[in-house]
Write a structure and sequence with these properties.
326 residues; Isopropylmalate Dehydrogenase; 2 domains; ten-stranded mixed sheet; 43% helix; binds adenosine-5'-triphosphate; binds magnesium ion; isocitrate dehydrogenase (NAD+) activity
Length: 326
Protein backbone atom coordinates (compact mmCIF):
# COMPACT_ATOMS: atom_id res chain seq x y z
CA UNK A 1 0.00 0.00 0.00
CA UNK A 2 1.26 3.46 -0.85
CA UNK A 3 0.54 5.81 2.03
CA UNK A 4 -0.97 9.17 1.31
CA UNK A 5 0.80 12.20 2.77
CA UNK A 6 -0.76 15.67 2.85
CA UNK A 7 1.88 18.36 2.36
CA UNK A 8 1.35 21.91 3.63
CA UNK A 9 4.36 24.21 3.15
CA UNK A 10 2.43 27.13 4.69
CA UNK A 11 4.25 30.48 4.65
CA UNK A 12 7.77 31.92 4.61
CA UNK A 13 10.56 29.37 4.98
CA UNK A 14 7.95 26.60 4.91
CA UNK A 15 8.24 26.93 1.12
CA UNK A 16 11.98 26.24 1.38
CA UNK A 17 12.31 23.59 4.09
CA UNK A 18 9.32 21.47 3.03
CA UNK A 19 10.41 20.93 -0.62
CA UNK A 20 13.94 20.20 0.65
CA UNK A 21 12.50 17.61 3.04
CA UNK A 22 10.41 15.99 0.29
CA UNK A 23 13.61 15.39 -1.68
CA UNK A 24 15.02 13.56 1.34
CA UNK A 25 11.83 11.48 1.74
CA UNK A 26 11.92 10.65 -1.98
CA UNK A 27 15.32 9.04 -1.40
CA UNK A 28 13.90 6.50 1.07
CA UNK A 29 10.16 5.84 0.50
CA UNK A 30 7.67 6.30 -2.30
CA UNK A 31 4.60 8.09 -0.94
CA UNK A 32 1.61 9.56 -2.70
CA UNK A 33 1.57 13.30 -1.99
CA UNK A 34 -1.38 15.63 -1.76
CA UNK A 35 -0.07 19.23 -1.99
CA UNK A 36 -2.38 21.71 -0.29
CA UNK A 37 -2.29 25.24 1.08
CA UNK A 38 -2.80 26.92 4.44
CA UNK A 39 -1.69 30.11 6.16
CA UNK A 40 -1.29 33.83 5.58
CA UNK A 41 -0.76 33.75 1.82
CA UNK A 42 -3.86 31.71 1.03
CA UNK A 43 -5.85 33.79 3.57
CA UNK A 44 -4.84 36.98 1.77
CA UNK A 45 -5.90 35.56 -1.57
CA UNK A 46 -9.12 33.84 -0.55
CA UNK A 47 -10.00 35.12 2.95
CA UNK A 48 -9.61 31.59 4.35
CA UNK A 49 -6.39 30.50 6.15
CA UNK A 50 -7.49 26.86 6.21
CA UNK A 51 -9.37 26.01 2.99
CA UNK A 52 -11.88 23.13 3.19
CA UNK A 53 -9.83 21.25 0.61
CA UNK A 54 -6.80 21.35 2.94
CA UNK A 55 -8.76 20.13 5.94
CA UNK A 56 -10.13 17.31 3.82
CA UNK A 57 -6.68 16.34 2.53
CA UNK A 58 -5.34 16.15 6.10
CA UNK A 59 -8.34 14.13 7.28
CA UNK A 60 -7.90 11.66 4.42
CA UNK A 61 -4.12 11.37 4.66
CA UNK A 62 -2.17 8.79 6.64
CA UNK A 63 0.05 11.62 7.85
CA UNK A 64 0.70 15.28 7.17
CA UNK A 65 3.98 17.13 6.69
CA UNK A 66 3.50 20.74 7.76
CA UNK A 67 5.94 23.64 7.31
CA UNK A 68 5.02 26.77 9.21
CA UNK A 69 2.45 29.53 9.11
CA UNK A 70 2.62 33.15 10.26
CA UNK A 71 -0.11 35.41 11.67
CA UNK A 72 -2.81 32.84 10.97
CA UNK A 73 -1.04 30.02 12.84
CA UNK A 74 -3.72 29.47 15.49
CA UNK A 75 -6.45 29.43 12.80
CA UNK A 76 -4.58 26.70 10.98
CA UNK A 77 -2.81 24.37 13.36
CA UNK A 78 -5.46 24.20 16.11
CA UNK A 79 -8.25 22.96 13.78
CA UNK A 80 -5.78 20.63 12.06
CA UNK A 81 -4.77 19.07 15.39
CA UNK A 82 -8.49 18.62 16.11
CA UNK A 83 -9.09 17.08 12.70
CA UNK A 84 -6.63 14.28 13.39
CA UNK A 85 -7.69 14.01 17.04
CA UNK A 86 -4.16 14.75 18.13
CA UNK A 87 -3.99 14.38 21.88
CA UNK A 88 -0.21 14.55 22.29
CA UNK A 89 2.58 16.69 20.89
CA UNK A 90 5.96 14.94 20.95
CA UNK A 91 8.93 17.29 21.12
CA UNK A 92 12.38 15.75 21.34
CA UNK A 93 15.27 18.09 22.14
CA UNK A 94 18.85 16.86 21.93
CA UNK A 95 22.24 18.11 20.93
CA UNK A 96 24.39 16.97 18.00
CA UNK A 97 28.13 16.75 17.49
CA UNK A 98 29.22 19.81 15.56
CA UNK A 99 26.45 22.07 16.85
CA UNK A 100 27.16 24.54 19.69
CA UNK A 101 24.72 24.22 22.58
CA UNK A 102 24.24 25.98 25.92
CA UNK A 103 23.79 22.55 27.55
CA UNK A 104 25.64 19.98 25.41
CA UNK A 105 24.39 17.03 27.47
CA UNK A 106 20.70 17.70 26.74
CA UNK A 107 18.71 14.72 25.50
CA UNK A 108 15.07 14.78 26.44
CA UNK A 109 11.58 14.41 25.06
CA UNK A 110 8.59 16.52 26.03
CA UNK A 111 5.17 14.88 25.73
CA UNK A 112 2.77 17.77 25.75
CA UNK A 113 -0.97 17.39 26.30
CA UNK A 114 -2.44 18.78 23.09
CA UNK A 115 -6.18 19.33 23.59
CA UNK A 116 -7.00 21.07 26.85
CA UNK A 117 -5.48 22.95 29.79
CA UNK A 118 -5.55 26.73 29.39
CA UNK A 119 -5.49 26.38 25.59
CA UNK A 120 -9.01 24.94 25.47
CA UNK A 121 -10.23 28.31 24.21
CA UNK A 122 -12.64 29.04 27.06
CA UNK A 123 -12.01 32.73 27.65
CA UNK A 124 -14.52 35.42 28.54
CA UNK A 125 -14.59 39.17 28.91
CA UNK A 126 -17.14 39.57 31.70
CA UNK A 127 -17.01 43.31 32.20
CA UNK A 128 -14.82 46.22 31.15
CA UNK A 129 -12.58 45.31 34.08
CA UNK A 130 -12.79 41.53 34.32
CA UNK A 131 -11.71 38.73 31.99
CA UNK A 132 -11.56 35.02 32.83
CA UNK A 133 -10.10 31.83 31.48
CA UNK A 134 -11.37 28.34 32.26
CA UNK A 135 -8.73 25.65 32.55
CA UNK A 136 -10.01 22.30 31.35
CA UNK A 137 -8.45 19.06 32.63
CA UNK A 138 -10.26 15.78 32.12
CA UNK A 139 -9.51 12.37 33.51
CA UNK A 140 -10.02 10.85 30.06
CA UNK A 141 -7.48 13.09 28.30
CA UNK A 142 -5.00 12.69 31.17
CA UNK A 143 -5.44 8.93 31.01
CA UNK A 144 -4.94 8.84 27.26
CA UNK A 145 -1.78 10.94 27.59
CA UNK A 146 -0.54 8.67 30.37
CA UNK A 147 -1.14 5.51 28.33
CA UNK A 148 0.76 7.09 25.45
CA UNK A 149 3.62 8.12 27.77
CA UNK A 150 3.90 4.57 29.15
CA UNK A 151 3.96 3.10 25.62
CA UNK A 152 6.48 5.73 24.57
CA UNK A 153 8.77 5.04 27.52
CA UNK A 154 8.53 1.28 26.96
CA UNK A 155 9.14 1.30 23.24
CA UNK A 156 11.96 3.84 23.33
CA UNK A 157 13.95 2.29 26.15
CA UNK A 158 13.27 4.90 28.84
CA UNK A 159 12.95 3.92 32.53
CA UNK A 160 9.93 6.13 33.05
CA UNK A 161 8.95 9.77 32.93
CA UNK A 162 8.59 12.95 34.98
CA UNK A 163 5.25 14.75 35.24
CA UNK A 164 5.56 18.57 35.21
CA UNK A 165 2.76 20.33 37.09
CA UNK A 166 1.76 22.83 39.73
CA UNK A 167 -0.64 20.85 41.91
CA UNK A 168 0.23 22.87 44.99
CA UNK A 169 -1.57 25.84 43.41
CA UNK A 170 -3.93 24.31 40.83
CA UNK A 171 -5.01 21.65 43.29
CA UNK A 172 -8.10 20.43 41.50
CA UNK A 173 -6.99 20.51 37.86
CA UNK A 174 -3.32 19.58 38.21
CA UNK A 175 -4.36 17.36 41.11
CA UNK A 176 -6.46 15.33 38.69
CA UNK A 177 -3.75 15.46 36.02
CA UNK A 178 -0.99 14.14 38.29
CA UNK A 179 -3.13 11.58 40.15
CA UNK A 180 -4.51 10.13 36.93
CA UNK A 181 -1.13 9.83 35.26
CA UNK A 182 0.46 8.32 38.36
CA UNK A 183 -2.36 5.78 38.58
CA UNK A 184 -1.90 4.68 34.96
CA UNK A 185 1.87 4.50 35.40
CA UNK A 186 1.50 2.29 38.44
CA UNK A 187 -1.00 0.01 36.64
CA UNK A 188 1.49 -0.28 33.81
CA UNK A 189 4.56 -0.73 36.01
CA UNK A 190 6.26 2.39 34.61
CA UNK A 191 8.23 4.74 36.92
CA UNK A 192 6.56 8.13 37.22
CA UNK A 193 8.26 10.98 39.03
CA UNK A 194 6.89 14.46 39.27
CA UNK A 195 8.21 17.99 39.67
CA UNK A 196 6.81 21.50 39.95
CA UNK A 197 7.10 23.05 36.51
CA UNK A 198 8.72 26.25 37.79
CA UNK A 199 11.44 24.33 39.62
CA UNK A 200 11.82 22.17 36.54
CA UNK A 201 12.58 25.26 34.44
CA UNK A 202 15.51 26.06 36.74
CA UNK A 203 16.74 22.47 36.70
CA UNK A 204 16.50 22.35 32.92
CA UNK A 205 18.60 25.48 32.55
CA UNK A 206 21.25 24.26 35.01
CA UNK A 207 21.31 20.49 34.52
CA UNK A 208 18.96 19.07 31.87
CA UNK A 209 20.43 15.57 32.37
CA UNK A 210 18.06 15.21 35.35
CA UNK A 211 15.25 14.65 32.87
CA UNK A 212 14.56 12.12 30.18
CA UNK A 213 10.85 12.06 29.26
CA UNK A 214 8.70 14.94 30.55
CA UNK A 215 4.90 14.65 30.52
CA UNK A 216 3.12 17.96 30.90
CA UNK A 217 -0.02 20.03 30.43
CA UNK A 218 -0.46 22.10 27.29
CA UNK A 219 0.92 25.51 28.33
CA UNK A 220 3.80 24.04 30.34
CA UNK A 221 4.77 21.95 27.32
CA UNK A 222 4.78 25.00 25.10
CA UNK A 223 7.07 26.95 27.41
CA UNK A 224 9.34 24.10 28.48
CA UNK A 225 9.97 22.99 24.90
CA UNK A 226 11.03 26.48 23.83
CA UNK A 227 13.34 26.48 26.83
CA UNK A 228 14.71 23.12 25.68
CA UNK A 229 15.22 24.55 22.17
CA UNK A 230 17.39 27.25 23.72
CA UNK A 231 19.51 24.62 25.48
CA UNK A 232 20.33 22.65 22.35
CA UNK A 233 21.36 25.34 19.88
CA UNK A 234 18.30 26.85 18.36
CA UNK A 235 15.05 26.42 16.58
CA UNK A 236 16.48 25.16 13.30
CA UNK A 237 16.94 21.69 14.81
CA UNK A 238 13.76 20.85 16.68
CA UNK A 239 11.09 18.59 15.20
CA UNK A 240 7.66 17.79 16.56
CA UNK A 241 4.82 15.36 16.01
CA UNK A 242 1.13 15.93 16.74
CA UNK A 243 -0.09 12.41 17.18
CA UNK A 244 -3.63 11.03 17.22
CA UNK A 245 -4.73 7.42 17.38
CA UNK A 246 -4.65 7.01 13.61
CA UNK A 247 -3.06 10.05 12.07
CA UNK A 248 -0.34 12.55 12.76
CA UNK A 249 0.86 15.99 11.72
CA UNK A 250 4.61 16.44 11.64
CA UNK A 251 6.11 19.92 11.82
CA UNK A 252 9.23 21.78 12.91
CA UNK A 253 8.90 23.64 16.22
CA UNK A 254 10.02 26.86 14.51
CA UNK A 255 7.79 29.36 12.76
CA UNK A 256 7.87 30.77 9.23
CA UNK A 257 10.88 33.02 9.96
CA UNK A 258 9.90 36.09 7.88
CA UNK A 259 13.33 37.64 8.56
CA UNK A 260 15.12 35.06 6.37
CA UNK A 261 12.27 33.84 4.14
CA UNK A 262 13.04 33.93 0.42
CA UNK A 263 16.81 33.84 0.90
CA UNK A 264 17.06 30.06 0.58
CA UNK A 265 19.21 29.73 3.71
CA UNK A 266 16.75 28.28 6.25
CA UNK A 267 18.00 25.23 8.10
CA UNK A 268 15.98 22.23 6.85
CA UNK A 269 17.11 19.95 9.72
CA UNK A 270 14.06 20.49 11.96
CA UNK A 271 11.69 19.62 9.12
CA UNK A 272 13.76 16.63 7.99
CA UNK A 273 13.82 15.36 11.58
CA UNK A 274 10.03 15.87 11.65
CA UNK A 275 9.81 13.73 8.51
CA UNK A 276 11.85 11.07 10.34
CA UNK A 277 9.18 11.12 13.06
CA UNK A 278 6.57 10.70 10.31
CA UNK A 279 8.48 7.66 9.05
CA UNK A 280 8.55 6.22 12.61
CA UNK A 281 4.81 6.80 12.91
CA UNK A 282 4.17 4.85 9.69
CA UNK A 283 6.53 2.07 10.86
CA UNK A 284 9.33 2.81 8.41
CA UNK A 285 11.82 2.32 11.24
CA UNK A 286 14.91 1.61 9.13
CA UNK A 287 14.22 4.52 6.80
CA UNK A 288 13.68 6.85 9.79
CA UNK A 289 16.99 5.76 11.32
CA UNK A 290 18.80 6.23 8.00
CA UNK A 291 17.41 9.75 7.58
CA UNK A 292 18.44 10.71 11.13
CA UNK A 293 21.94 9.37 10.63
CA UNK A 294 22.31 11.25 7.34
CA UNK A 295 21.22 14.53 8.95
CA UNK A 296 23.46 13.98 11.98
CA UNK A 297 26.47 13.31 9.75
CA UNK A 298 25.66 16.46 7.81
CA UNK A 299 25.40 18.51 11.03
CA UNK A 300 28.76 17.13 12.14
CA UNK A 301 30.65 17.39 8.83
CA UNK A 302 28.76 20.07 6.95
CA UNK A 303 27.56 21.72 4.87
CA UNK A 304 25.73 23.91 7.41
CA UNK A 305 23.29 26.80 7.06
CA UNK A 306 24.12 30.26 8.51
CA UNK A 307 22.16 29.71 11.77
CA UNK A 308 24.76 27.03 12.57
CA UNK A 309 27.69 29.17 11.49
CA UNK A 310 27.96 27.87 7.92
CA UNK A 311 27.23 29.48 4.58
CA UNK A 312 25.36 26.72 2.78
CA UNK A 313 21.87 27.05 1.33
CA UNK A 314 18.84 24.99 2.32
CA UNK A 315 19.17 23.01 -0.92
CA UNK A 316 22.88 22.32 -0.45
CA UNK A 317 22.17 20.85 2.98
CA UNK A 318 19.31 18.73 1.60
CA UNK A 319 21.55 17.56 -1.27
CA UNK A 320 24.22 16.51 1.24
CA UNK A 321 21.64 14.55 3.24
CA UNK A 322 20.34 12.85 0.07
CA UNK A 323 23.92 11.98 -0.99
CA UNK A 324 24.56 10.39 2.40
CA UNK A 325 21.42 8.28 2.00
CA UNK A 326 22.52 6.74 -1.27
P1 LIG B 1 6.02 31.65 15.49
O1 LIG B 1 5.24 32.77 16.11
O2 LIG B 1 5.44 31.14 14.22
O3 LIG B 1 6.44 30.58 16.46
P2 LIG B 1 8.45 33.00 15.92
O4 LIG B 1 8.20 34.46 16.02
O5 LIG B 1 8.64 32.21 17.16
O6 LIG B 1 7.35 32.34 15.01
P3 LIG B 1 10.32 31.84 14.10
O7 LIG B 1 9.71 31.98 12.77
O8 LIG B 1 10.34 30.50 14.71
O9 LIG B 1 9.70 32.94 15.04
O10 LIG B 1 11.78 32.42 14.07
C1 LIG B 1 12.51 32.83 15.24
C2 LIG B 1 13.96 33.11 14.84
O11 LIG B 1 14.59 31.85 14.54
C3 LIG B 1 14.09 33.97 13.59
O12 LIG B 1 15.20 34.82 13.70
C4 LIG B 1 14.30 32.95 12.49
O13 LIG B 1 15.04 33.46 11.41
C5 LIG B 1 15.06 31.85 13.21
N1 LIG B 1 14.72 30.54 12.61
C6 LIG B 1 13.58 29.85 12.76
N2 LIG B 1 13.59 28.72 12.05
C7 LIG B 1 14.78 28.69 11.41
C8 LIG B 1 15.40 27.77 10.50
N3 LIG B 1 14.79 26.66 10.09
N4 LIG B 1 16.63 28.07 10.04
C9 LIG B 1 17.27 29.19 10.43
N5 LIG B 1 16.75 30.09 11.29
C10 LIG B 1 15.52 29.85 11.76
MG1 LIG C 1 7.56 30.68 18.32
Amino acid sequence: MTERIAVIPGDGIGHEVVPATLRVLDAVVEFEYDHVEAGDAVAERTGEPLPAETLEAVTNADATLFGATGETSADVILPLRDAVDSFVNIRPARTYPGVDAVQPETDLVILRENTEGVYAGMEDRLTEDVSTLTRLVTQSASRRLAEFACDYADSNGHDGFTIAHKNNVMRVTDGLFVDTIREVASERGVDADDAYMDAMATHLAMDPTQYDVIVCPNLAGDVLSDLAAGLVGGLGLLPSANVGSERGIFEPVHGCAPDIAGEGVANPAATIFSAAMLLDFLDYDDEAAAVRTAVETTLAEGPRTPDLGGNATTDEVADAVVDRLS
